[in-house]
Fold this protein.
Amino acid sequence: MLTMEIICLLILMFNADEYYKNFCLNCHGDVLGKEKGKTYPIIFLPGSLIKEVTKTGFLPFMPPFQLTEEQLDELTKYITENSKQIYNIDENEINSSITTISIITPTFNKIGNSQLIKQQDENKIKSNSKSHVKDITVFVERGEDKIWIIDGKEVKTIFTFPNVHGGIKFWSSGFIIPSRGGELGQYFLNEGILKKVNVCQVIKNVEVLEEESKIFVSCSIPPAIIILDAQTLKVKSIINLHFQPVSVVKTKNNKVVVILPDSIGIIKSNGELLFHRVPQNIVSVLVEPFGEFIFLGRVQSIEVIGPEFNEVFSIKTTSPPHFFSSAFWYDKGSFYTAIPYLNSIIIVKMFDWEIVKSINFPDFVFFVRTHPNTNYLWADSGGYIYLINKYTFDVRRIEISGKEFHTEFSSDGSLAFITSRGENGGIIILDTATQKELSRFKAKNPAGKYNLSLRTKPLALLGFDIYKSKCWGCHHPTKAAFGPPLSAMNEAMIRAQINHPKDKMPKIDLSEREIEALVEFVKNLKHFFDLSENQN
């Protein structure tokens, strides 16, 4: 039995420096921010958050540590006090680091046919197939620091980008690549050109506001938001922060919001940051497709806040949710989201804000994905892919090799891209309808996959669901049927026809959100259908 004297002796023997080196350094890097770890640093964070996560864990990524309150306090003090150093951001240094590399000759047109002509300095891959920019999926091969560009089922381009992990963000001319090494890449699809700039020591994530030609870079070290010109990559402004950001996100009406562990800031057009304090530590963030509500993940709760940062919904938890892989869909007048949480998926009816279902799995759930052209949520747990019916919540498992996770779909939903790990790991491409394997590519330690249309048009995807539910019987996307094709309509026509139907169209009661999503879908038909089809 431990006596008080023995407990006091153990506390006195505790060495925070040695403990950190043995249990924290490998993943989080050193407390000075000089030596990087496998994941994000924990310096420039509130001491209360460091203590809470160390005590409760961040499952499934980090287990709880069995320390006394005194040891937790000592470890927290060691981390926070040793990381109090000044990091200067030199605008001239950032601007002078900009470089341009010609990866390949032009491969893609914005809308139209394309082919890969030449590949430099990498394995040569040739293709003469027709393609549209809507079909592009970007894949991160973390083990080799590679970026793959896949068009349909074919690999078009592979190039190297150091310290890449994920977080790809698309814009009209290509995509942005953040790296944990602090370097940001900007790839131009039409020209086959890669621009690079050294922004900071560690990048957390990026957001793009194309209307203002701005790239917002959230940096963990030093804690800052650095706003770049999207055309030149030169610095437009720098916002220093008191803690490292959780994320920078875009909400409704292109409002850019910075989430910190203890506050939420709105970036004004002049570069100023207007803060709103929140009472607890935030560790993850999710913005629903309408951009009206923000999901905040805390260590022991999920909270949803509205446009005025007021709480509208909350769920008690024992570990933070994995927001980055949530899925959204529509059914019978309601919008839903599926949130991975430990070994379960929580189904929430949005805007009514109620939990519809909690589905348990044998192991941790990392990713959930769906598409309007599949009836299922595709989730991974314990190396297997599970299909959950979006309407009945029945569950079945796909048998591949037991090492699969993370599904992404092609723009039209006909293809499912599955990541597979192990000696023969890589990307497996399945027929979404039959789940039969079509092809696979070998890759080392594969990570995220990002489809251009699915990542840039989340609201249009909900509109796609509504179209299939309410409009498909009479209106073809590109051809005249019982009614005119959607491609011949604009927003004013759609709203007028819904509100005041004519020409034998029945009255369909739709909410403003349903109409907004449907209009967004029609505006972006080219991302999901070939508009060159005959419309007669």
About this structure: The longest strand covers residues 202-209. The radius of gyration is 24 Å. Residues 470 and 508 are 8 Å apart (CA to CA). The first helix runs from residue 4 to 13.
